[in-house]
């Protein structure tokens, strides 16, 4: 698929992996719509890349519908969707307070929130975008669109406290092939990236010694991943027409330890 002149939507695009992907798409001539809840950063990035910002909460049908309506009114029906919207979580399933002995369990409302954003929010955007892509005329080889999702290496080797996060990202991995199969006769490809430890805003705020320790845990190269590297893989998944139904780790060879 060619990027120049093609409409694209990137969720969670105001910062981190999503922002890098939005910039990469725009640099290749794509018309990019930024879906995010951070209006200040989203508007600034849209102005920078000549795109459009849509204030979208991926847990809300109405919000996602309004976002797609605004993006399509400006750029036309998207052929590209990259899902980067997500949240982290680190709470043990059950634990004992070392000082008081009090026993607590993971608050179920907090668990559900992670699933709603990371898993259901991703599927919500996929389903609504794919339905729109079905209205498009096919390109060469019958292609109508390409979708890239963001999971995590935690989908396969989650750490202590990552039950909700790993479940949500494992769900994204697990639904990739079935969705690709659902859409194969309509010419829509679906792939997922499993990033390792990346230099996103969350980690940029960490102390230098923490970042150095994390970097040292990567087999090679011994550094954090850069968002631009994620964006390059996303672009490859979009532009290489034979890339379909795949879940690809991008992690420097790391396998996460229990903690």
From TrEMBL:
One of its GO terms (molecular function) is oxidoreductase activity. The keyword Oxidoreductase applies. Coiled coil: none annotated. Pfam families: adh_short. InterPro entries: NAD(P)-bd_dom_sf, Sc_DH/Rdtase_CS, SDR_fam. Keywords: Oxidoreductase. PANTHER family: 17-BETA-HYDROXYSTEROID DEHYDROGENASE 14-RELATED, SHORT-CHAIN DEHYDROGENASE/REDUCTASE. Belongs to the short-chain dehydrogenases/reductases (SDR) family. This is 3-hydroxyacyl-CoA dehydrogenase. It comes from Sphingosinicella microcystinivorans.
């Amino acid at each position: 698929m060619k990027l120049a002149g093609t409409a694209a939507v990137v969720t969670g695009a105001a910062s981190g992996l999503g922002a890098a992907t939005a910039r990469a798409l725009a640099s290749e001539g794509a018309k990019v719509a930024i879906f995010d809840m951070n209006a200040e950063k989203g508007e600034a990035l849209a102005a920078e890349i000549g795109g459009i910002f849509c204030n979208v909460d991926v847990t809300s049908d109405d919000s996602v519908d309004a976002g797609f309506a605004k993006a399509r009114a400006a750029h036309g029906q998207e052929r590209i969707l990259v899902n980067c919207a997500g949240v982290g979580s680190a709470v043990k399933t059950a634990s004992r307070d070392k000082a008081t002995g009090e026993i607590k369990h993971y608050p179920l409302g907090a668990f559900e929130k992670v699933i709603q954003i990371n898993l259901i929010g991703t599927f919500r955007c996929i389903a609504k975008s794919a339905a729109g892509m079905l209205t498009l005329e096919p390109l060469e080889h019958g292609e109508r669109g390409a979708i890239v999702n963001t999971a995590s290496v935690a989908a396969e080797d989650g750490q202590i406290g990552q039950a909700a996060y790993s479940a949500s990202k494992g769900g994204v991995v697990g639904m990739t092939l079935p969705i690709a199969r659902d859409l194969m006769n309509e010419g829509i490809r679906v792939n997922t990236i499993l990033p390792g430890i990346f230099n996103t805003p969350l980690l940029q705020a960490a102390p230098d010694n923490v970042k150095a320790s994390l970097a040292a845990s990567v087999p090679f190269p011994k550094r954090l991943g850069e968002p631009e590297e994620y964006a390059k893989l996303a672009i490859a998944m979009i532009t290489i027409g034979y890339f379909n139904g795949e879940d690809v780790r991008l992690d420097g060879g790391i396998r996460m330890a229990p903690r």
